[in-house]
Q: What sequence folds into this?
């Protein structure tokens, strides 16, 4: 490809934000598997006479999606889910990072807690749902507790690992420059652990998003999980599939367009010297 | 009580430990706890360093050189003995004693400029004054043009220049250096040594410099201390006369006097290596 071509292509992308977003997700090739899936789905649907209670065509799903968007239903359910994951993420960082720090700087606590954190990782957020529903009822509080629980463990764990991976020389050097303990936190431990905290955040948001949808299906107080589980009661296959696609798309957007750029930014400055 | 007695004894051993001593170490012994009980790192180290002096310390690896430096820096508390800095006991690290480490100790997420100015930032020096000092040190250490780079964009030699500049920028009275050029390639090392000699001549710091290179010790030092094998103590002190303003390797190598001193230090160090090998052999035989 000539330079002029590349330039015009880039200029073209600038005028079309949607295409630019696709490119940031990894270029048009990432759309290929989706196209193949839709084609297969369409072929299967066309090959036999399915009842609309079992399988509907991609077109029907698209119509259901347009309908849900047009009536503001999708926006309402999706915004509930997004608000939940947002609030859970902020709270998890506010609580999880300090805990991870406290554990990370204390070798004894780190050894003591490592096994416990792994144990907690084994008990998924969903496994806490029965208890949470008994304690908090069918409320947003229950959903929030489940999502925070799911999010916070990888954040604590990765903050702890990040703090422990900082070469002790960094802190010694700064103490010889007259740094106070607070200064060590702001100038060494926090920036030093940041790449690892971001990794924990990214993992946590992935786990948290899944836990959120599951919790919403049981709690039934709005959110995309509620949307698709509610559609099941009326056998609205088109709505179920439309909701599932939105769940997947929103996760990709959160992960690739928000969290990953933050991760890349920290790695660009931090990571290379770790060896 | 025991400390007092030791201190008195050291006074008699070292009558030179007088008022102009910047650093005075007396009867420094250190033990590290290990699984097999305490491990002795040094054996009764006594030394004094005068203000403005450049003292180098050579010794076989594992003889306790770094332990001594850590105690001077205040990173460890001596098991026995006293360490005085300007007549006052060392209690923890402080900005009057800067440290340059062997391994990477500059912060990878700060640019060259912000790393060098870090000590001044901590000391709340005004931005304009900080910029002035940092720019001067960037010039002195040959880092001009790299001010806004991150450490991972620099070669090993440049990173050590940044570490040296950061320590100098904070303007400590004493600078402790722990094999700062050991991890740098041989050609770069020669340049860095010459630059350090120039920097010291220009700034009149008291420097304590650890190395395992005899050449480096004699090239840089006003005095060279030789340490015995583990557990180390000071075995010999060799004066290196006439450390001129700009020492360079070419004239150093051509100077017969300097070469004689280097030979002398090398012999002293070799004895320790030989002794270590001999004792290891003896242990081997005993086990056989």
A:
């Amino acid at each position: 490809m000539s330079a002029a071509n590349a330039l015009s292509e880039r200029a073209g992308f600038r005028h079309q934000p949607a295409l630019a977003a696709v490119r940031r997700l990894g270029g048009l090739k990432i759309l290929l598997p989706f196209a193949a899936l839709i084609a297969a789905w369409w072929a299967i649907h066309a090959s036999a006479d399915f009842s609309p209670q079992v399988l509907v065509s991609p077109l029907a799903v698209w119509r259901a999606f347009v309908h849900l968007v047009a009536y503001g239903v999708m926006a309402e359910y999706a915004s509930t889910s997004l608000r939940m994951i947002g609030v859970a993420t902020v709270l998890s960082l506010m609580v999880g990072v300090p805990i991870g720090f406290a554990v990370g700087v204390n070798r004894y606590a780190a050894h003591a807690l490592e096994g416990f954190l792994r144990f907690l990782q084994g008990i998924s957020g969903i496994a806490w749902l029965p208890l949470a529903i008994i304690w908090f009822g069918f409320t947003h509080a229950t959903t929030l507790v489940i999502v925070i629980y799911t999010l916070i463990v990888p954040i604590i764990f990765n903050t702890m690992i990040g703090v422990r991976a900082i070469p002790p020389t960094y802190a010694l050097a700064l103490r010889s420059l007259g740094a106070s303990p607070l200064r060590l936190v702001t100038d060494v431990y926090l920036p030093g652990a940041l790449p690892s905290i971001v990794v924990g955040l990214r993992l946590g948001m992935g786990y948290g998003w899944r836990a959120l949808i599951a919790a919403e299906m049981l709690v039934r107080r709005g959110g995309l999980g509620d949307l698709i589980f509610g559609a099941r009661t009326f056998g609205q296959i088109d709505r179920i599939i439309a909701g599932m696609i939105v769940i997947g798309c929103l996760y990709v957007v959160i992960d690739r367009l928000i969290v990953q750029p933050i991760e890349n930014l920290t790695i660009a400055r931090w990571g290379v010297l770790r060896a | 009580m025991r400390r007092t007695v030791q201190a008195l004894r050291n006074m008699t051993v070292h009558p030179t430990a007088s008022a102009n001593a910047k650093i005075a170490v007396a009867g420094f012994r250190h033990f590290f706890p290990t699984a097999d009980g305490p491990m002795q790192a040094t054996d009764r180290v006594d030394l004094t360093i005068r203000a403005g002096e450049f003292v180098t310390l050579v010794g076989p690896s594992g003889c306790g050189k770094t332990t001594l430096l850590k105690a001077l820096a205040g990173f460890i508390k001596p098991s026995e003995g006293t360490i005085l800095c300007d007549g006052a006991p060392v209690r923890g690290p402080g900005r009057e004693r800067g440290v340059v480490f062997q391994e990477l100790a500059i912060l990878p997420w700060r640019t060259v400029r912000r790393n060098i100015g870090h000590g001044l930032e901590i000391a709340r020096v005004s931005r304009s004054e900080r910029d002035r000092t940092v720019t001067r040190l960037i010039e002195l250490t040959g880092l001009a043009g790299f001010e806004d780079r991150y450490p991972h964009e620099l070669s090993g030699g440049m990173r050590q220049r940044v570490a040296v500049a950061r320590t100098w920028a904070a303007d400590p009275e004493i600078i402790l250096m722990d094999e700062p050029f050991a991890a740098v390639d041989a050609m770069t090392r020669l340049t860095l040594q010459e630059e350090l000699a120039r920097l010291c001549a220009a700034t009149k710091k008291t420097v304590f410099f650890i190395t395992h290179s005899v050449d480096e010790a004699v090239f840089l030092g006003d005095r060279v201390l030789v340490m015995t094998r583990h557990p180390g103590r000071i075995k010999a002190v060799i004066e290196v006369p006439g450390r001129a303003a700009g020492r360079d390797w070419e004239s150093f190598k051509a100077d017969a006097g300097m070469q004689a001193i280097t030979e002398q230090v090398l012999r002293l160090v070799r004895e320790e290596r030989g002794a270590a090998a001999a004792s290891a052999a003896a242990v081997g035989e005993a086990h056989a």
